[in-house]
Write a structure and sequence with these properties.
Elements (H helix, E strand, L loop, with lengths): L1 H12 L7 H4 L1 H10 L1 H48 L4 H12 L7 H26 L1
Helix pairs in contact: 1-3, 4-6, 5-6
């Protein structure tokens, strides 16, 4: 008699159309547990979290490297400015703008993009100052 009661449960569980426990119901839950679908969902979610963490770590590393590079460029520009002495007003304004820049962004990606723009501007300025001094 017990076998007869189990068969309809298994038959209904086999009709499952989703592995999402929030949408399933009792029989879908039984099916998700027995088929391993829930475990697969957990593993996939853990993989997504690990991938996101790796992206965040890489982005943080890029941010630190870019901040360091910009600081080094600013130091070089200060040294070049001291060697050149008083510059024309346009060059002096450009030097001040680069030295006083503080790249910001609403997201880490936007901040990295702003840093990269500042680095490009600082490199160009440093190259121009090198031409003036030599």
């Amino acid at each position: 008699m017990k076998r007869l009661a189990v068969l309809p449960c298994l038959a209904l569980a086999a009709c499952q159309t989703t592995t999402d426990p929030a949408e399933g119901g009792f029989f879908a839950g039984v099916s998700g547990i027995t088929t391993g679908a829930y475990d697969a969902r957990v593993e996939a979610a853990e993989g997504d979290v690990a991938a996101a963490q790796a992206r965040n770590d890489a982005l943080a590393s890029q941010l630190r490297a870019s901040e360091s590079e910009l600081a080094q460029l600013k130091l070089t520009i200060l040294q070049q400015r001291d060697v050149i002495g008083p510059a024309d007003p346009a060059t002096a304004d450009r030097i001040d703008r680069v030295l006083n820049s503080s790249p910001q962004g609403a997201t880490p990606e936007a901040r990295l993009e702003a840093l990269q723009r500042s680095i490009s501007e600082a490199r160009a300025l440093s190259a121009d100052l090198a031409k003036l001094s030599g």
